[in-house]
Design a protein that fits this description.
Layout: H1 4-16, H2 49-59, E1 66-70, H3 86-91, E2 99-103, E3 107-110, H4 116-122, E4 128-130, H5 135-145, E5 151-154, H6 161-171, E6 177-180, H7 185-189, E7 202-203, H8 213-226, E8 233-236, H9 239-246, E9 248-249, E10 262-266, E11 270-274, H10 281-286, E12 297-301, H11 305-314, E13 320-323, H12 329-332, E14 341-344, H13 348-353, H14 358-385, H15 393-405, E15 410-413, E16 418-421, E17 445-450, E18 452-454, E19 457-458, E20 461-466, H16 472-489, E21 493-494, H17 508-511, E22 523-524, E23 533-537, E24 550-553, E25 556-559, E26 563-566, E27 569-576, E28 584-589, H18 607-630, H19 634-643, H20 650-665, H21 668-674
Helix pairs in contact: 5-6, 14-15, 14-18, 18-19
The structure holds 2-acetamido-2-deoxy-beta-D-glucopyranose (6 copies).
One 2-acetamido-2-deoxy-beta-D-glucopyranose binds at residues 41, 47, 49-50.
């Protein structure tokens, strides 16, 4: 699901950092040159002349001067199916983030620095590239380009209520009018649009479920009836909301096991909007579709959601509750007059889903133990292979995917692996391709951020390693990133504390020496679900922490054109025993893979941090050690034991830190003499 905030934050780093690193090894001849005569187009560019002609023709009868094409789907998904890749088909540009605007004489793409060079390779000279990807930049362009009073068309299915608001707030005062066009104009001219993905939704096995779907329906209905604003129904628009409610999974979009769906849930009815031909007899029985009381699901065609919502709204006394971050404008705009509408940032399903039940907690932790085996296999293999000079970023990414696929309940990767060496890792979100894959070498740092889907859980972990001699600066930066990770992980806080109020703990050790990172510090994860599961995390729009929430903790540091460090673990909030208070929480780290010892300078760690680290390593030894034995992985077991040897404990480290103290208090003149 779209963790837009987190992704946006990542883009910040990218904007600041190493924009030339990704494609630098390739000659510039493969980018288009529209000022050459005739224009130079690389073989990777797509001729968009005819599609633009057709789209422009379809704009005229609608009386719109511009048409906006975002890169998302009707559920604001983080990953989209090929049939929703409208921006890519129109422009040729296949990057995951971007927005296009088409007028009668211009076609413009906005995307962030990760994708500028890719756009120059994939677009023909019909297209202009704008490098500031903010909504403000798009609306400013529209105001300059089209006259006051003119209309700007958009597909309301592809805008969240909140994003629409930003466009509207910028354009309306300038007298440019947004015109909602629910029939997508690209779809009308896209003759070879990919079909609906073929797989039917499936139900989760009972072994991974504690709450049946009627129990979940009860939980949400209780919140409807307790709400003082008296809503009569909840509308669910994000794909994970419906999948969660009914304990169903699907295969419509990459990486996330979701299926196209909406749900309208009232106190006594349940309407599920899906591609009904994909609902098997078994699912119909499971969902109780052939009855009409309050625990019977009425199956309705996916495409009828607008007309059905409209007919519901015609009833008297109804009020529909929607979460504005994940409801699309196409449904929201129907809910009039205002007394039929109740909004909150997140739907009650998203907030309820964020707290895992006991079964979900247990199996998600178990999935992380098997996942740790796969990641250790990668790290052990790289330690052997990299000195031979045979591996690159892509072969490493494939290797970890393969290791995961051998683990029980594996269902593929949970996102595209970030496998980045040297300067490529300075781009926080870089994934290798055939053109860019960098050879792995003992003289560079390497960052691998990867995760798996398992029937019982979703994982996401980042480790950064060096196989040769790291510099003192690399060691210090790595240690300070680790200190940030540990400081958040070991924090004790009152239940209900917001992540944003703890976030600086992850940055403090870096800030002390004037270092920082430009992305978010964590996000929720699901049970065989989204890997970036909103609304848990450390940003201002995340909800307060309660017991049973899982979040990533992932501080980092990126040095432009040189290296990147990120240390990411998943942790669950658990009760903490405190001397005086009740109802305090702390984190228990469930990702169980050792850090790179070579990069840790223990004399920077406080005794408490060192104690935490040693405890963590003890846990790895007992929990993953047991699993490695069970799987008969002797070599991996020895590797793990070597890498989790205890660090010098408090007494020994106290000696080191008092020596450090002594040196720092010496007058600098004396220090110079000593050196
Ligand atoms: C594009 O072509 C023009 C005209 O031939 C040339 O002057 C310019 O250097 C080229 N630009 C790039 C980036 O290759
Ligand atoms: C793109 O296609 C159009 C229409 O088929 C054709 O007229 C034009 O020459 C093509 N442009 C290029 C650069 O090949
Ligand atoms: C087209 O839109 C403009 C600007 O909103 C409006 O003035 C004009 O009347 C519209 N024309 C038609 C035919 O609807
Ligand atoms: C399905 O409906 C039947 C009767 O129509 C009811 O007895 C049963 O409890 C329902 N099943 C669920 C899971 O609610
Ligand atoms: C990358 O190269 C390999 C080997 O040449 C090839 O099999 C693979 O399809 C390529 N992948 C992409 C995404 O181009
Ligand atoms: C470890 O950190 C201490 C304190 O900053 C520093 O004096 C020492 O040189 C560092 N050691 C290494 C091996 O980098």
């Amino acid at each position: 699901m779209s963790s837009s905030g987190w992704i946006l934050a990542v883009c910040l780093v990218v904007l600041e950092g190493g924009r030339y690193a990704v494609w630098a090894e390739e000659g510039s001849g493969s980018e288009r040159n529209c000022s050459a005569i005739p224009p130079y187009l690389p073989p990777t560019a797509v001729n968009t002349t005819l599609r633009l002609r057709d789209l422009r023709a379809s704009m005229i009868p609608l009386n719109i001067s511009a048409y906006i094409i975002p890169a998302t789907d009707a559920h604001l998904s983080e990953y989209i199916a090929p049939r929703d890749a409208r921006l890519a088909w129109m422009s040729g540009f296949t990057g995951s983030a971007g927005t296009a605007v088409i007028t009668q004489n211009k076609a413009v793409l906005w995307t962030d620095s990760r994708y500028w060079i890719q756009a120059e390779r994939q677009m023909d000279c019909n297209w202009e590239l704008q490098r500031d990807a903010s909504v403000r930049s798009i609306t400013n362009w529209l105001i300059l380009e089209i006259p006051e009073g003119d209309q700007v068309g958009f597909d309301p299915f592809l805008f969240s209520v909140d994003i629409f608001d930003v466009y509207n707030t910028n354009l309306t005062p300038a007298g440019r009018i947004l015109k909602s066009i629910p029939d997508n104009l690209v779809d009308k001219i896209w003759t070879d649009r990919p079909p609906l993905p073929p797989d039917n939704p499936t139900r989760l096995p009972d072994s991974v479920i504690e709450r049946t779907w009627p129990t979940k329906v009860d939980q949400i209905r209780a919140q409807i009836s307790d709400n003082p604003y008296k809503p009569t129904a909840v509308l669910l628009s994000a794909l994970d909301e419906t999948a969660w409610l009914f304990n169903l999974r699907g295969n419509d979009i990459p990486f996330n096991p979701f299926f196209y769906s909406y749900t309208l849930l009232s106190m006594d009815e349940i309407w599920l909007f899906v591609h009904t031909e994909r609902m098997t007899e078994e699912l119909k029985v499971y969902l109780n579709t052939s009855c009409y009381h309050s625990y019977c699901v009425q199956l309705l065609e996916y495409s009828s959601v607008r007309s059905y919502l409209q007919s519901y709204l015609q009833r008297s006394g109804v009020r529909v509750w929607v979460g504005t971050e994940y409801t699309n404008q196409a449904l929201y705009e129907l809910i009039t007059p205002e007394d039929k509408l109740l909004t909150s940032t997140y739907s009650p399903v998203l907030t309820t889903k964020s707290v895992k039940d006991a079964t979900e907690q247990r199996i998600l932790k178990e999935a992380h133990v098997r996942d740790a085996v796969a990641v250790m296999q990668l790290l052990m293999w790289l330690e052997k292979k990299v000195p031979e000079g045979t591996e690159n970023e892509l072969t490493a990414a494939h290797f970890v995917d393969q290791c995961r696929s051998k683990q029980k309940n594996s269902r593929g990767p949970s996102f595209e692996t970030i496998s980045a060496s040297g300067p490529n890792a300075a781009l926080a979100h870089y994934s290798p391709s055939n053109e860019t894959a960098r050879k792995l070498s003992v003289s560079e740092m390497y960052l691998v951020d990867s995760g798996g889907q398992y029937l019982d859980g979703t994982t996401d972990i980042t480790r950064t390693v060096h196989w040769g001699k790291p510099t003192d600066f690399q060691k210090e930066a790595y240690t300070r990133v680790l200190m940030g990770n540990i400081e958040i992980s070991r924090t004790v806080f009152p239940a209900g504390t917001r992540g944003v109020n703890m976030e600086m703990l992850g940055r403090r050790a870096l800030w002390e020496v004037g270092l920082n990172y430009g992305h978010g510090t964590g996000h929720g994860v699901g049970n065989y679900f989204g890997v970036h599961e909103w609304p848990v995390g450390f940003q201002s729009n995340n909800i307060p922490f309660q017991e049973g929430m899982f979040t990533s903790i992932e501080p980092g540091y990126y040095k432009e054109n040189d290296f990147g460090i990120r240390i990411e673990d998943i942790a669950v909030t658990v009760p903490a025993t405190t001397k005086y208070g009740n109802n305090y929480l702390t984190f228990e780290t469930v990702s169980l893979v050792p850090y790179d010892r070579k990069l840790i300078n223990t004399s920077l760690l406080s005794p408490e941090q060192l104690h935490w680290l040693n405890k963590y390593y003890e846990t790895i030894r007992s929990v993953v050690g047991h699993e490695l034995e069970r799987q008969g992985l002797k070599e991996e077991y020895d590797w793990m034991m070597k890498h989790t040897a205890p660090f010098l404990t408090a007494g020994a480290s106290a000696v080191i830190s008092s020596v450090t103290l002594l040196v720092t208090v010496l007058p600098s003149v004396l220090l110079h003499n000593l050196l």
